[in-house]
Design goal:
Layout (H helix, E strand, L loop, with lengths): L2 E5 L2 E4 L4 E8 L6 E8 L6 E7 L5 E3 L7 E6 L4 E6 L8 E9 L12 E2 L3 E6 L1
Parallel strand pairs: 2-11
Antiparallel strand pairs: 1-3, 3-8, 4-5, 4-9, 5-6, 7-8, 9-10, 9-11
């Protein structure tokens, strides 16, 4: 059974940094997409960043480009999101997700497995 466990959330002041981690258990596919999503109260869930393991390639939402970096440690089956220059509008619950994929184009949606989320709060 696939299980995703996020950690690393917390409260920081604007301009600060956090690194989120997502440990994946039980996922056996060789090529897949892993992504970070967030949802703020009263707002729809949005994709923040994703990565395709089949040939690399990353995606970032315009709102986080240049500030967030997604990366993966295959040996540890862990996905990371380094968040720098945080803004109050980055405040949200952050989720990681994974889906089987044969190409990068599938990384935009259709994620199958989700973590429980980790809260990020940025104060001004």
């Amino acid at each position: 059974q696939v299980q995703l466990v996020e950690s690393g959330g917390g409260s920081v002041q604007a301009g600060g940094s956090l690194r989120l981690s997502c440990a994946a258990y039980g996922y056996t596919y060789n090529t897949y997409c892993m992504g970070w999503f967030r949802q703020a109260p009263g707002k729809e869930r949005e994709g923040v960043a994703n990565i395709y393991t089949g040939g690399g390639g990353t995606y970032y939402a315009d709102s986080v480009k240049g500030r967030f970096t997604i990366s993966q440690d295959n040996a540890k089956n862990t996905l990371y999101l380094q968040m720098n220059s945080l803004k109050p509008e980055d405040t949200a619950m952050y989720y990681c997700a994974v889906r089987y994929a044969l190409g990068r184009t599938y990384c935009s949606g259709g994620y199958t497995y989700w973590g429980q989320g980790t809260q990020v709060t940025v104060s001004s």
